[in-house]
Amino acid sequence: MGNMPCIHPYRLDEDLSRKREESDKFLLEAAKTNEGVVSPSERVGREILKLTNEFRIKNRKPPCIWSREIYEISRKHSEDMAKHKKGFDHSGFSERLRSIPYRTQANGENIYKTSEEKGVATQAVNGWINSKGHKANMLNDFNLCGIGTAHSSVDGMVYVTQIFAKAK
């Protein structure tokens, strides 16, 4: 028989342990920053939240925190509107609120649609600022927010749902 390479078990275990630690550190950092790989809908939603928070701060309100759970609820409503399963309205809002997995004491919702795919975040926020009811939602005493978007293959529009909540 020829020479066979020898893999020292100690060395292999050490390498696996180090790689596991590196992976755990990466996942921990991603969780801490609430970042990571995001969908186009979430990317636009986060941009809308950034603009919303800038508006809130200018009006002496604290910024809202991104809620992944509320984002998912908002995204689903935007998808339903885009597929015309629901009208372009707030129907089903109470159902959406019940699906938030934690207790809240106040909630609000803004919706928006546009045929322009570029600049959706700026368009939506400016549209809401110029609407009394939507502006009031943006300046209410909420501390959580999630915004989901969807592009319709039916009518070519982009639908946006912004849900605010105040956690108990």
What does this structure look like?
The N and C termini lie far apart (72 Å). The protein has a 4-stranded mixed sheet with strand order 1-3-4-2. With 168 residues, the chain is of the alpha+beta class. About 11% of the residues have low confidence. The chain has 2 domains: 30 residues; 128 residues, CAP (Pathogenesis-related Protein p14a), CATH 3.40.33.10. Helices cover 49% and strands 18% of the residues. 26% of the residues are buried. A hairpin with a 6-residue loop joins strand 3 and strand 4. The longest helix is centred in the N-terminal third of the chain and has 25 residues. It comes from Streblomastix strix. This is Putative CAP domain.
Low-confidence segments, given as residue ranges, are: 4-13, 26-34
Straight-line distance between termini: 72 Å
Q: Could you tell me the strand content as a percent range? A: 15-25%
Q: What structural class do the secondary elements suggest?
A: alpha+beta
Number of E strands: 4
| The number of domains | 2
CATH topology tier name of the largest domain: Pathogenesis-related Protein p14a
Shape: globular
* CATH architecture tag of the largest domain: 3-Layer(aba) Sandwich
| Mean pLDDT value | 84
CATH superfamily of the largest domain: CAP
Strand order of the largest sheet: 1-3-4-2
Q: What's the number of helices?
A: 6
> What is the class of the largest domain in the CATH system?
Alpha Beta
| Radius of gyration over all CA atoms, rounded | 22 Å
Protein name: Putative CAP domain
Organism: Streblomastix strix
InterPro entries: CAP_dom, CAP_sf
